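Record type: monomer structure entry
Structure origin: computed from sequence
Chain ID: A
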Amino acid sequence: EVQLVESGGGLVQPGGSLRLSCAASGFTFSNYAMSWYRQTPGTERELVATLTSTDGSTNYADSVKGRFTISRDNAKNMVNLQMNSLKPEDTAVYYCNYRYFWGQGTQVTVSS
């Protein structure tokens, strides 16, 4: 059974940082690309970042380039999202994704 469990969300002030983590199980983690998405009420889920399994290439939404960094630890079956210089518009529920599987999401709120 595939499981994706996110952690690390919370409340942070603008300009602050958070690190999200996703613990994956139930599949051969090192063989697959992993992604982070986010969603706010009334909007579609938005791709934030993707990290491949092969050459380590990444892809970021324009809105987070230069501020967010996706990484993975294949030994621990974890994918992380380091978020710096956070803005109020980054407020959303963040989801870990593998193929068509999703975690339960973790809330990130950026507010003073």
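Annotation 1: The longest strand covers residues 18-25.
Annotation 2: The chain has a mean pLDDT of 96.
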